[in-house]
Amino acid sequence: MNRLCEILGIKYPVIQGGMAWVATAELAAAVSNGGGLGLIAAGGAPADVVRDQIHKCRELTDKPFGVNVMLMNPSADDIMNMLMEEKPAVVATGAGNPAKYMDGLKAAGIKVFPVIASVAMAKKMEKLGADAVIAEGTEAGGHIGEITTMCLTPQIVDAVSIPVVCAGGIADARAAVAAFALGAEGIQVGTRFICSDECIAHDNYKQAVLKAKDRDAVVTGRSTGAPVRALKNQLTKEYERLEKENAPFEEIEALGVGGLRRAFAEGDVKMGSLMAGQSAAMVDRIEPCADIVKSYFDEIDKILQKVKNNMSI
Ligand code: TUI
Questions:
Q1: Exposure pattern of 236-265 as b/e (b: 16+ CB <10 Å)?
Q2: Exposure string (b/e) for 193-220, b if CB count within 10 Å is 16 or more?
Q3: Is 136 in the pocket of ligand 1 (CB under 6 A)?
Q4: CA–centroid distance, residue 50 to ligand 1 (Å)
Q5: 3-class DSSP state for residue 199?
């Protein structure tokens, strides 16, 4: 039996990525109702807004779901205190070290799944009592680390004994099989869920993901120390120009302010931040979350047969 399914009481070991703005109660509930684990993204929201989202999600599903806390959010302390009261099944963390919250979350009976992008951080999280780690490769969308999913996953699997969830670039069943071959016990999927019926992002954002080709998910912000992957548009081009000109930090940062809201709510595909992973190029339809969750486990035998054929020497 898959350890992640056991820990969480879910059918499919598929976690929906905690995408700021995009991962609303509607999306999380739909993924959980489809047998995976939905996550509400706290993103940059204040604690009371996240609490309302949890209540909404509980109206939409009786299945377990989680909350992703982006640790660069200035309200992270308030959000964590609220979560210790609300007790979602899981708290996933991103973009930082959740050490100071770990004991409180565990004492509240919440499973803690830190997103990590290095071996050292994975080891630290296991030592602190994390229930699983989400190893996110640089193929992912949004704020990213440097190591590819292919190289990061097996190194994390060898370094810890808690379950490893593989993230970054997993848009179809072949990639899922590869992740499990690398030793992962679950997958986290973000970009493909943008193109779901239940995602309430503006249709222009969804269409941009559908249209994206192999080189369209580009990284900006390397020079400021917070690299972000998003679909190439006027915003990313202006970022690139400012970075090349060594513009002041504040000027570069100011460009991005409100970018996710512009993309998600207004459908501004020119100056919005269309955060998405490299797998955007492989997403070709909008469909129900339940179908996306299940699709990763379709045709396992056929894929494994192909592996055997391709590897028979
Ligand atoms: O967090 C993410 N992805 C995100 S957060 C986000 S919101 C945002 N908006 C505007 C600018 C920047 C961010 C959009 N996408 N993924 C999880 C993730 N965590 N990737 C990498 C890390 C990470 C990085 C460093 C985890 C731990 C870490 O530790 C550093 C330390 O404290 O030692």
A1: bebbeebeeeebeeeebeebbeebbbbbbe
A2: bbbbbbbebbebbbebbeebeeebbbeb
A3: yes
A4: 19
A5: coil
User: At which residue do the structure tokens 């699983």 appear?
Assistant: 132
Q: What is the pTM of this model?
A: 0.98
- At 253, is the pLDDT very low, low, confident or very high (cuts 50, 70, 90)? confident
Q: Which is more confident, 71 or 255?
A: 71
Cα 115 to Cα 107, 119, 140, 146, 161: the distances in Å are 20, 12, 12, 14, 16
Does residue 145's CB lie within 6 angstroms of at least one atom of ligand 1? yes
Instruction: Give the pLDDT confidence score for residue 208 in this predicted structure.
Output: 98
Q: What is the Cβ-side half-sphere exposure of residue 276, based on CA atoms within 13 angstroms? A: 35
